Amino acid sequence: MFKKRCWSILWIGLLAVSFVILSQSGAQAAAQSSTVTLTKATGGYVFEGNQLVGAATFMKGVPYEMVAQDAKYGYLSFGNDKLAVPIQLVQPAAPLKGNPLPKGRKTVITQSRISVSSALRGGFRVGYINPGQRLPVLAETKTHVQVNLGGVRGFVPKTLVSADPGIPVLMYHHIVENRAHTPFANNNMVIDLAPFKQQMAYLKKNGWKTIAPEDLDNWLALRKNLTDKTVLITFDDGLLSLQKYAYPALAENGFTATSFLITSRIKQQAQPWDDQAFQYVGLKEIRETVDVFSFQHHTHGLHLRRPATREPYLTTSTAEEITADIHLGRRQVSKAFDMADPNIRYLAYPFGQFNETSKKAISAAGIRMAFTTNPGNVKLGDNRYELKRQGIAPNHSLKDFEKKLLGSY
Length: 409
Description:
A hairpin with a 3-residue loop joins strand 4 and strand 5. This protein is an alpha/beta fold. Helix content is 25%, strand content 27%. The longest helix has 24 residues, at 2-25. The model is unreliable at 1-31 (pLDDT under 50). It has helices at residues 2-25, 193-205, 213-220, 241-252, 283-289, 313-316, 319-334, 356-364, 398-405, and strands spanning 34-38, 42-48, 51-58, 64-69, 73-78, 81-86, 90-92, 107-110, 114-117, 125-129, 134-136, 139-140, 144-149, 152-157, 161-163, 169-172, 174-176, 190-192, 209-210, 230-237, 257-261, 293-297, 346-348, 369-371, 390-391. It contains nine helices and 25 strands.
């Protein structure tokens, strides 16, 4: 009876401290992780916009690591991030033994709902993990991978997971209704509207979800979990077809995308649409499409080649020139947002080319990831300044598109 009373007093105290922190910061609160159990089995959820999506099941009475809490949810450790459980089901428990689990630096994909055990033989059931989860791996044996479920090291049979093909970053440039009737008939960077819409419909029908570059950034930094059918859609240059064709097709499917802008070509607003020429979005079009597009950097004035050598300006400029160019681009885009920081933290290399000088210069200027035109998917451990993309060209069939998503093209 005395022990129960002590636990009750301790729990009330913890809630009181959490309430104070919440009232001061308005954020999820937990200065340190704590050990808890659940009064009944419950799902563990991740937030996708305003929706809660189930990723795992936690068991009654198992001690778990709670890394944060707010008025509605306790957040239990899972993979490289956390999952939400109803706070009313949480109660304090004796601390877990051993050191906190490390981050997983390799990922596998769950193929079915998996029961997770605390040991290879015997042990107890830690919980269940849903299909389609991109699981960070802590270690592995011949037969099992080890994962973090609620701060507990769990064992999952290798027969129930598959190798992670990586996250596809799709690369587009320009869209027209009929490229055969434009000067771009032989330009592999220009695709027709019909196949683009078909590709977006394929993603929607097959359960793919788009992410923002910040999501990929946090995943690479081992701060976020992502599910299997996750794709980042990108467009280079900032051409007006972003608004005319890409924006409605993306919005119709509930998708988002990233536009890498050549910022020196951004004026107050675009010229009237003309499918016979390359035209660029203006500040007006940026404001009108920001609900779908994240606007990022493709350099300000360095998307050019030296006349004599045809070498890219980016790879032949000094670090000081590159840094100044990045800041000019940020300032230009900030004009669309009343000079507020446009949150430009990511860049696509002009012509896909870079060197050590350009990588170091853009990093010093606050760029956190940079994308090449080299084909392939992004995996944990990849150099964040040499990220691959899957270019989509007119000759790619829907089957080719599917292979690119799976990293097998």
